[in-house]
Write a structure and sequence with these properties.
Elements (H helix, E strand, L loop, with lengths): L7 E5 L11 E8 L2 H13 L4 E4 L5 E3 L4 E8 L4 E3 L4 E5 L4 H10 L15 H6 L3 E2 L2 E2 L4 E8 L2 E5 L21 E9 L5 H18 L5 E4 L4 E2 L1 H6 L5 H6 L1 E2 L1 H7 L6 E2 L2 E3 L6 E4 L5 H19 L8 E3 L12
Parallel strand pairs: 2-5, 3-5, 4-19
Antiparallel strand pairs: 1-2, 6-7, 7-12, 8-9, 10-11, 10-12, 13-18, 14-15, 16-17, 17-18
Length: 320
């Protein structure tokens, strides 16, 4: 296997994940721009290597046993905003920076991105969103490298759904998103910033200062469960949506700790690293939360966070 310039071996992924946990990447490269991102990912595909891309590292948990193949740190971050509302953004840009650039140009639609950590690429993989909006609704096309071939594809290629896309699936195609094109509607600057400030205020009141991955579990869509919960706010009952944090808190797990991992005190759906937690401790606490919520409410919480790398020795692990 011929090495590319800058290819490093056995590199710890802790500094690249906001949970500050996990093992090493077999191989790691830093892509400083779009061309390097395209070249590095195509090389990985040609070498038949499992290829993982990290941006802000805010929605992932690398295994203590490491991540096989090639890991690319995506620093391709150019954002081109045009007066018509057309935006072309590289996937290594910070999601919040994308909002700021578009808001400054008088475009609305991405206000929900305020306070969401991580990169545009991570937001696309998990179809990030909040406050009844998500990133996929504004896309017109995406440029990808698929099996080593660089091409533009329509949004349907991503198979977007709630906090999900084809790139999250266990049989995901060998593909990397390089950049996207989106069309945003024009709006009133005062209204844009007022809405964003309100979202930011809500997030500051909920988000903890400790290392975390943001929301760990997806919210639950279950009309019957929502209607049965006396204290669930009426708008959520009407929508049939039960926040994961509501279920975790109602199950008595707010602040619950295992080793250096803890469920948030401010917001129960935040998994925190409060004591040099290992990925295993975080994983075990997550399994405990799922088990208790399942027993109490009869629903299965699904992780929003992606487990990266080799988790084979944790198959069938019992909750603590």
């Amino acid at each position: 296997m011929a090495d590319l310039a800058g290819l490093r071996h056995d590199v710890s992924l802790k500094p690249f994940a906001t949970l500050r946990a996990g093992g090493k990447a077999d191989l790691l490269m830093v892509a400083r721009n779009l061309e390097e991102l395209a070249t590095d990912s195509a090389w990985g595909h040609r070498q038949k290597l499992p290829t993982t891309v990290l941006g802000g590292g805010s929605n992932v948990l690398p295994s203590d046993d490491g991540v096989r193949g090639l890991t690319i740190i995506n620093q391709a971050s150019c954002i081109d905003v045009r007066p018509s509302g057309l935006v072309i953004a590289e996937t290594g840009c910070a999601f919040q920076e994308l909002f700021l650039k578009t808001a400054q140009a008088g475009m609305h639609g991405l206000e929900f991105a305020v306070g969401i950590p991580g990169s545009l690429g991570g937001a696309l993989v998990s179809n990030a969103g909040a406050y009844r909006s998500c990133v996929s609704e504004f896309l017109t096309r995406l440029e990808i490298v698929h099996d080593g071939v660089r091409q533009w594809v329509p949004p349907a290629w991503m198979e977007f759904s709630y906090r999900d896309s084809v790139l999250r699936k266990s049989d995901a195609p060998a593909a990397i998103v390089l950049r996207v094109e989106m069309q945003l509607p024009l709006g009133q600057p005062k209204q844009i910033y007022d809405e964003a400030r309100e979202y930011q205020r809500q997030r500051i009141s909920k988000q903890p200062p400790s290392p975390s991955a943001g929301s760990f579990f997806k919210n639950v869509t279950n009309k019957l469960l929502a209607e049965s919960l006396v204290t669930l706010p009426a708008p959520l009952k009407a929508a049939g949506i039960v926040p994961a944090g509501y279920l975790i808190e109602a199950a008595g797990l707010k602040g619950h700790r295992f080793g250096g991992a803890m469920m948030g005190q401010r917001h129960a759906n935040f998994m925190l690293n409060v004591g040099n937690a290992t990925a295993e401790e975080i994983f075990r606490l997550a399994q405990t939360v799922k088990s208790v919520v399942r027993a109490k409410f009869g629903v299965e919480l699904e992780e929003e966070v992606l487990y990266l790398g080799d988790w084979s020795r944790f198959a069938g692990i019992e909750p603590e």
